[in-house]
Amino acid sequence: MAETTELRANPSAGAPARSAAGQRSERARFGPKVIGLALLPLVLLAGVLALIVRTNAGLGPRAVPPIETLSVERVRLPAPGLIELSVVNDGPDPITIAQVQVDDAYWQFTVDPPRPLERLRTATVSIPYPWVQDEAHAVALISATGVLFAADVPVAVESPRLDRTSLLRFALVGFYVGIVPVALGLAWFPFLRRLGRGAMQFVLALTIGLLLFLVVDMWGAAQSLAMGVAGSLSAPVLVPLLALLTAGLLTAVGTSLRRRGHGAGNLSLSYQIAFGIGLHNLGEGLAIGAAFALGEAALGVFLILGFTLHNVTEGIGIAAPLVREKTRPALAQFVGLAAVAGLPAIAGTWIGAFVYSPFWTTVFLAIGIGAILQVVVEVGRLVWRGQQRHGEGLVSWPVFGGVTAGIAVMYLTALLVSA
Question: Does 213 lie in the same domain as 146?
Fold first, then answer.
């Protein structure tokens, strides 16, 4: 009887033994035999695929012409008298570039690497041609089977060289269109702290409006760029998938931090907004740098002023959550927020000018869309909590007006930016 009482008083006495047994059971469940059974279908699949390729699926020798698709990713003019094309084989069969035409005349050229271009492989075609400054030129690559692939030089301008002068010049452009407008927007923080509850809800809703505009704007840019990427990479499909995965990842990270007691404050939300806007500014910088390199945009003082005006509301959106902080954040926090949101514009101009890639630009934009969508949800929660505390519905006049104003301001200032 005493033994029974002791067992009841110590119900966990056998727990360690059961835990150890459970661990042994888990190890047995995923032992070498089980792993082998999991790998067996993959090995068999690899064998079947190899057999299909080796025997041409039993169809015998193919008597039809090869399917050739060549995508021209970028045209550069690295020096006077030289045209360079970056190309990728977008088709299922190898391609051999046999001839090159420039302005309807056949021209000498070299291909690096010189061998036939396999599927999804890239190459650089160098053409020693005396291009004329500020004029348009038409380039055509002709495969060994006679298929023609066209590329254009809309405005012949020597491509930027990777040197100290170019780095500083593009950094200055990125500074003007990225850091400066964000810093100017953050400078409204003292004014925002003096607003009443209704006005503050308006400003938070305005943040949602400008972020929604950025999402739609980035979506259009990403889909447009995706159409110019090699079709085999399925870039248009990647845009929504990467956006959703990014939003899901950031949501999971935020949930994990909140459970651990971190990242639940308004300062953390401001950094999330700055991060999302930073990804947008990275894509914006990529477009600016590429436009510089291709000579397609007259990026003068007026255009830089347009970008500054267009992006200044981003700083307001970043500062809005900080108004709810009981103590004013330190100056270093504002500097950090401006850096997170603005510095990517500098990096973007460098990448766009020197190593621009339509595929990776599309990827960056898709990630930015997902990041901003997650921030929209977080700011929406902040607005909703404020509405609930005062017994109001989610969409009141201040909230609706703020969202509308944010979209309208971004749209109207975007009219000043035409790259």
Answer: no
